[in-house]
Amino acid sequence: MTISMVHPTIDTKSLLTGAQFADAFSISTETTDLTARDAATRMLSHSAPWVVALTRLRDLIVAPFGLKTAHSARRADIDKIGLFPVLTETPQRLVAGFNDNHLDFRVVVDVAPDGAGQRVTATTVVLMHNWFGRIYLTVIKPFHRMVVRSMLQQVAR
């Protein structure tokens, strides 16, 4: 299965007014019965070992700055998939994410018919609040792209 970087087609302003960054990646599957929650669960509930290692490193670096960590997100008693709180959901679209001091982000998982299967698209939208948010996004962007591709691969399995 090929994962493609695509132009985000969602209305980013309705998700995060003033968002300065958005990207989207897409994969076609042979599956015809996935809901957005199913796809998000496949993507966000399990991570490759190298993604887990990157997340731990990120937590060590950002915890002294008072930013949310994966550990604290997992402990939250709310509807979430993996460490991401679910904000809105329909069978075709799930929006997850959270707000932090440096930036707010949303991950949107869309599922749509695609030939004999389905197309799953993961869109990330970010609103940066300050210089730390801009630096943070600049540093993690190359890793983010690798992580999203890895997560989408899990949808096709």
How would you sum up the major sheet?
A: 7 strands, antiparallel
State the end-to-end distance: 10 Å
| Inertia-based shape | globular
The mean pLDDT is: 87
**Biggest sheet, spatial arrangement of strands:** 1-2-7-6-5-4-3
Total strand segments:
7
Describe the structure.
The protein is of the alpha+beta class and 157 residues long. It has 5 helices and 7 strands; from the N terminus they run E-H-E-H-H-H-E-E-E-E-E-H. The protein has helices spanning 12-15, 36-44, 49-62, 70-75, 131-155, and strands at 3-6, 21-29, 80-81, 84-89, 93-99, 103-114, 117-128. Strand 4 and strand 5 form a beta hairpin. Helix 2 packs across helix 5. The protein is globular.
Summarize the structure.
The protein has 157 residues and is an alpha+beta fold. It has 5 helices and 7 strands, in the order βαβαααβββββα.
Present the secondary structure layout.
Elements (H helix, E strand, L loop, with lengths): L2 E4 L5 H4 L5 E9 L6 H9 L4 H14 L7 H6 L4 E2 L2 E6 L3 E7 L3 E12 L2 E12 L2 H25 L2
Antiparallel strand pairs: 1-2, 2-7, 3-4, 4-5, 5-6, 6-7
Helix pairs in contact: 2-5
